[in-house]
Amino acid sequence: MPQLGGVGITGSDPAAARAIRRTLLGRAAEDNALLFPAHFPGSGAAEVERDGTKFAIKKWAGFSRIC
């Protein structure tokens, strides 16, 4: 994982938070990695793809809660 500057995505610097999200989404799209978003409803992971200059969920991998 690249160094993200030690700033959390919910940090007090909105520009840094946007840059971190774009880096994370870009890596996930390039590597076909699954993201496990903490603030999406339900249980599952998202496969991300580039959509022009934006990102989109390519496929949602739902699963049953384990706890």
TrEMBL record:
Gene3D superfamilies: Ribonuclease Z/Hydroxyacylglutathione hydrolase-like (3.60.15.10). It comes from the Bacteria. This is MBL fold metallo-hydrolase. It comes from Amycolatopsis rubida.
